[in-house]
Every structure is written in C-alpha cells, then in structure tokens.
Request: fold
Amino acid sequence: MINGAGQGGGCMVRELVLREIVSHSSEQTLAIGEWLGRELPSGTLLALDGDLGAGKTTLTRGIGQGLGGYPVSSPSFTLHDLHEGGRLPLSHCDAWMEGREVAFLRDGGSEWLAGEGICVVEWAERVREWLPCPRLWVRLLHRTLQTRRLELRVLGPDGSPEGLTQVLVQLLERLPESGESP
Amino acid sequence: MSKLILGIESSCDETAVAVVEAGRKEIASVIHSQISEHAPWGGVVPEIASRSHLDQILPVLDRCLEEAQLELTDLAGIAVTTKPGLIGSLLVGVGAAKGLALATDLPLVGVDHIEAHVYAAAMDLPAPPYPAIALVVSGGHTALYLAEGPLSMKPLASTLDDAAGEAFDKVAHMLGLSYPGGPSIAKLAPKGDPRAIPFPRYRPKDGSIGFSFSGLKTAVLYHLRGGDALAATPAPEDIVDAANVAASFQEAVVDALVKMTLRAAQDNHLDQVLVAGGVGCNQRLREVFAAASEPDGIETHFPPPNRCTDNAVMIAGLGWHLFEAGRAADLDLDASPR
Reply:
C-alpha cells in the first residue's frame, strides 16, 4: 500500500500493475515516451522520479513528440510549462526544488494535475501528497552508464479497476519494450 | 519632442524600472533584486516573486524618476516586458504600465524579454551590428538566433533539455555550493584544472547546431560516483576534487556554447556575435569567446555585466525601436509565459 492521502489525492492507492523495462539507450527511452504520448488518455497524471540524469526529461521529450511535436525541455526554471495544439495538451511540472514546487501547487498550480490532457510531474516523489489517483508512476533507475531500468506502475484506488484506471492498466500491459508499435 | 522611454521589467525575480533616451542613452536605472528572498528555496518561487514585485514596483518607479529628475509628463512612452517569464510576475509590471499609460495618456508598448536581452549587447555599440548571431544563455534559456535587426530574430537552435544556467545550478547543488550556481561555480573554478576531467561536449549526430546539457550533468554525477552508475552520490563534504569538477564542468559548458555559436556565425557567413543573458556574466565564457573569435575575424559583443542579468534599460531601449516601428499597443496588452 502506498499512502497517497494529501491535499491533492486524498485517497489510499495500491499498485495495480507493474511493468519493468530495460532501456539500452536514450533513443529507446525517447521511443517509449513517444508511444506513451500517442496512447495516453486525457486526464492522465504521469509521475516521474529517479536520479539526476536518469532520463526523466528524455522520457518527457518523447511524450511531447508523441502528443504532437511539442518542444519539451526541462521546466526546472519555470516550474511549469504548458504545451498546446497537439492531440492533447501537455502540462509539464518539475519538483526538483521541493519547496518551490509546493509553493507553486499551493498557489493554484495543483489544478494542472487533474486537468484535461496529460500532466507530467518530474521529481514526483517530492510532491507525492499532492498527486491525484489514479496515476501512472514511472521510476527511472541508473543501471550501467548507458542503460536504465524503467519501472512503470499504475497506482489506483482499491477494488477492481474501472474508467481511467482500467484504461491505464490495459495500456501498460501492451506497452512495447522497444517503444516501437508492432 | 521627448525621446525618453520608461521601461518596466518584472518577468522573473528582479523588479526594474529605467529611463532611456532614444534607445541608447541610460538616464536612470533602478533594480530591486529578490535573490535573497528566493535563496533559501534554491530557486525562484513564483508566489514569493509576484508578491515582492507588487511591494516593490511603485517604490522602484519613484526612485527611478527621482534619479532621472523627471516627471511622468516628460516621457514619450512606456515599454514593458510582456513575455516570456513567470506569469504572476509579468502581470505586475504589465498592470503597472497600463495604469500609468491610462493615467498619463502616454503610449504603451509590449517588449519581448529575450529580444531585449540581445539588444542589451548591441545598444552601446558605435554602429548597429546586424545581421548578427545572438546567443541567449541564462537559467531559463539557451538558444541561438539570427538577429537581422533589433526587432527581427529568427530562432536557429535551442537546448534539447536543460538551460546552461540550470546545469550550473544542478552541478552546484551536487557540489554543495550555494544558489545561484553560476557565480558559485565560477568562483571555485579558478582553483581547479579545467582539463582535469574530460567531461563530454554535446554535438548533434546530424552535424547540425544544437545544445544539450543533460548528458554533461549526468557525467558529473557519474564522476562523483567514481564511474559507477549504481554507487551512492557522495555528500558534498566528501568530494575531494570539487575545484577540478567545477573548473572542468565550466570549461565543458563554455566550450559547447562558444563552438556552436561560432559555427552558427560561420554557417551564416556573419562576423558579428551578440551574447546575452545571465550566463553572459561568466568571465571564462568572455575569455574563451574573445580568444576563439579573433582568428576567424569574428567580433563578439557582451553587454556590461550589470545588463547581462535582468534590467529595465534593455526594455526601455528596445521599446524606443518598437515605437519607431509603429508597434504601440493599446490597453488590452496582455502578458504571456512564453
């Protein structure tokens, strides 16, 4: 059980599905992101965490590509970037400086977390209490200097998955390891 | 006919007001920096920034007019930063500018903050340097433009991931140095050897022009972990070669910035380069640019250090050209984060 109770979520969530993928290059991470960008349903909150340099922004760049060629870069400076005009809007947040991000969320930024389109939060662990459920949680781990392990989970409310939760569970089950659609 | 333009800048964490005559001559400039208010958070907090702008905007305006020994009625127009930046911060400046315009009947113009930074590198030159290659490099931006004139900038390339200033902040954080990272690393770097650690310089695979600093940041992390991706990151006090890391990292950033910018100049057959933005304060960047430009007959221009970071002189200066080009706005002028 992962406690997701907080200002944003307010629910107990459990892990419904776990996929583990080894990415052998930043190109593969980008391709997995692109696939997610093409497939994720509106309303998805994608929480990203992992060390500096593990590939969070790379994955998000792929998602931006898949959604409609959005020029995604790191939002550490602006805290929040909104991209529009593609298949769905992409809201991109960064909680690297936890205090700044919490101030941003408290100041009304939290409405981006559950809005229309896709919301990606980097360094999500630091603002976990704010995140709504269900959510797609992707952890990127350093494996060797070139490769990364991706752990992708759907965290949702107890009980059999329905609605958005069910869509996310099914999506994760058919995510191709290469990111290339068969 | 007055040629005095009032400039207002509040896009991020400086509240600034200036008066500039005919786009070139600084009459007065006042800047209130919020850096000490944000330092405990390790970066600019939007809510704190907009509140501070609200507190400061009128006092800063009053001090500027007092320094200039002018009344509002002596002015020819009001220029204000409308984009890009933190929306809550921008709105304070835009609101103030609109209020002043309404009260005084002065014309109003909206200024692009990035174009204004580039103009800061050009405004003191004896002759206009256009067409030129412009490098904008700061905490939020790292991009190259083809500047055909002060109001015409064509984007050539932008960072794929982190801005250069952000990479400085993140590496400073790993080394336990204070925010903002640029000045902290620049201060430590001279104590180290810039060739001690061969950090990577990003080059796009297709031979085009581009920037990426994410790989460099990861290379610093792996170096600190002793080349083992899975090792723990040492605490700052356990890092024995911090000065060499700072020097070698700074050299890698400077190298990438200088090489790509000069390549862009050569590809476009231009011999003028303008460097703008906060990272333009970096002394090593200035040295390497000067040394590398000269053999190719390229001239690189930097603003004076107090106009690298955010200021309103550049806003008032570029505002003059916007008025001259007939680009005055009406009172529904709006701010935009991008």
User: Anything to note?
Assistant: Chain B has ten helices and ten strands. Chain B has two domains: 4-118+309-324, 129-302.
